[in-house]
Amino acid sequence: xxxxxxxxxxxxxxxxxxxxxxxxxxxxxxxxxxxxxxxxxxxxxxxxxxxxxxxxxxxxxxxxxxxxxxxxxxxxxxxxxxxxxxxxxxxxxxxxxxxxxxxxxxxxxxxxxxxxxxxxxxxxxxxxxxxxxxxxxxxxxxxxxxxxxxxxxxxxxxxxxxxxxxxxxxxxxxxxxxxxxxxxxxxxxxxxxxxxxxxxxxxxxx
Length: 206
Fold this sequence. Notes:
Number of helices: 9
Strand content: under 5%
Strand order of the largest sheet: 1-2
Structural class: mainly alpha
Radius of gyration: 16 Å
CATH superfamily: DhaL domain
Helix content: 55-70%
């Protein structure tokens, strides 16, 4: 599988424009654990990022797309999640500097860079009930596939993994952010950040 930058841009714009449909679900999940702003963050950030991608010049490289996406997402509605995702995308851009196509290898490098930056800036790790609990296992699934794998099969497998991980986060106690304040009361609720990653992958698959 390999997508040109123009294909990546079109797919990203489509997926990002679909994310506001999940805003209320994410708001409700986040309200059970924190201040309930994730729905607004994802909606505003996604629409701003889609607009920023559309305004890039035709010859923009893959790294340029990620930088524009990260900056727009993080500044549209300032929040911890927005800053973490934005910072992750800026880190990912450095792994594909000058690239004009993305295949499985590029996707894996970008994803690992996003996860590493989120872990570093958020001082979080697997089991803390964050987006990492869905993101990292989905990348492990991607890595397990051979380089010639069909994109649809890859996405289906990643989404299956993330769906299981989202359900699994409900059994965890939140250890980071405002969600940590509710302590044991966080158990029984799926992590909203992990859910946002699931909804994005589903939107990307279409």
